[in-house]
Design brief:
alpha+beta; six-stranded mixed β-sheet; L-amino peptidase D-ALA esterase/amidase; Ubiquitin-like (UB roll); five-stranded mixed β-sheet; 2 domains; globular
Length: about 400
């Protein structure tokens, strides 16, 4: 399976190798090594789930010691909920990569995705790591994209060449995710690279700002993963001056390009949500603060009753109204807010809009892409969240995940 119909531009200084180590299923690519040129800088964000996986803990620790020379990624096993042994296994895997590449184990960042609560099959890693490294090449993005997938139906990748204050900069990124999607500081797994010349501080800020409005604005089922992680590497190989100020035009151009790439990757995750048949945009306008806009957006996006109505293409607008009402907005004036399905006003003046008809609502709900707009009319804040419906297949996929 490929499914990629775009050109993935290589990034100078980034080499990707993959193999099938039978961690996931025999014959499936499930082990990825991304080798980074010396001098490359990497920024990262990680899950805030208290039960974070061993590779998350180790990657965060290693980043405090050195810039990474390699990323090690496996699918099929999350190495989460595995206690002290999980940490020892993650450390050993980094040591094997370091031995092959001639760097220190602290210069390797590990990432895992898959079933929680199972120890890594270490003999498969020991055999697979040299094989993956033997295959590293600058054009390995597509196989790497396939290698990080679990329940994903399609691979997710974005690649573009952009103008940064008059200089050509390349960005390429891949992500995975389909279920257990309600990120908190990152996505299920995302890896992006650029040849831009940029300081670590500016790179980190660009990643934080991009993640905030992309991966942290999607939800499929409300479950924050134990393994969420997102990295952005800059190899410093582009022909350009160093971006060293967040106030510069070059930074603004670069940061916007990163946001657009991350947003596209995040929306791909929603469109590939487990069992998803709808792509839903929940747009909350006129809030008193970012926080209350997100409260309302998530109340609607996470409501099982709203999500099942979306699956049925049922314009049951009362479910949306009820979700807004229970979002926890202090002193919400229901008489002044408005709710729209597409461009159809369904709620105003505290109840059903006077001109609304069931046929209008049905026409919107029958679409694959459904916009829901909520105008709170309390201020100037505005937030958008992307989500899916809940289908029969979501239950089936997750009920049968380990079988």
């Amino acid at each position: 399976m490929s499914g990629l119909n775009i050109t993935l531009h290589p990034i100078a200084g980034v080499y990707l190798g993959t193999t099938s180590a039978a961690i996931k299923k025999p014959g499936k690519i499930d082990l990825v090594v991304i080798e980074l040129i010396p001098g490359a800088l990497t920024a990262a964000t990680f899950t805030q789930n208290a039960f974070c996986a061993a590779p998350v803990t180790l990657a965060k620790q290693n980043l405090t010691h050195a810039m990474p020379r390699a990323l090690l990624i496996n699918s099929g096993n999350a190495n989460a909920g595995t206690g002290a042994q999980g940490m020892l296994d993650a450390q050993q895997c980094c040591a094997w990569v370091a031995q092959e590449l001639g760097c220190s184990p602290e210069e390797v960042l590990p990432f895992s995705t898959g079933v929680i609560g199972q120890n890594l099959p270490m003999e498969r890693f020991q055999a697979g790591i040299p094989n993956a490294i033997a295959n590293v090449n600058i054009t390995g993005w597509e196989n790497a994209c396939l290698g990080i997938m679990t329940t994903d139906l399609v691979p997710k990748a974005v690649s573009r060449v952009v103008d940064v204050d008059g200089h050509s900069v390349t960005l390429t990124g891949i992500s995975k995710g389909s279920g257990m999607i309600h990120p908190n500081m990152a996505t299920m797994l995302g890896f992006a690279a650029t040849d831009a010349k940029i300081t670590q501080a500016c790179l980190h800020q660009a990643l934080l700002d991009a993640v905030k409005v992309s991966f942290n604005r999607i939800t499929v089922d409300g479950d924050t993963s134990t393994n969420d992680a997102c990295t952005l590497t800059a190899t410093q190989q582009a022909d350009m001056p160093v971006i060293d100020s967040v106030n510069s035009k070059a930074y603004q151009d670069f940061a916007q390009a990163v946001k657009e790439m991350m947003t596209e990757l995040a929306q791909m995750i929603v469109r590939d949500g487990e069992g998803a048949t709808k792509f839903v945009t929940v747009d909350v306008q006129g809030g008193a603060s970012e926080e209350e806009c997100l409260k309302v957006a998530h109340a609607v996006a996470l409501s099982p009753l709203v999500k099942t109505a979306l699956f049925a293409s049922d314009p049951n607008w009362g479910r949306i109204l009820a979700a807004v009402g229970r979002a926890g907005v202090d002193q919400l004036n229901v008489d002044t807010l408005k709710i729209y399905l597409g461009d159809v006003c369904i709620v105003e003046n505290g109840g059903r809009a006077a001109n609304y008809t069931e046929e209008q609502g049905q026409a919107v709900m029958s679409q694959t892409d459904i916009p829901i707009t909520i105008q709170l009319n309390r201020g100037n804040a505005h937030e958008t969240v992307w989500t899916t419906d809940f289908s029969y297949d979501y239950v089936k996929i997750n009920a049968e995940y380990r079988s």
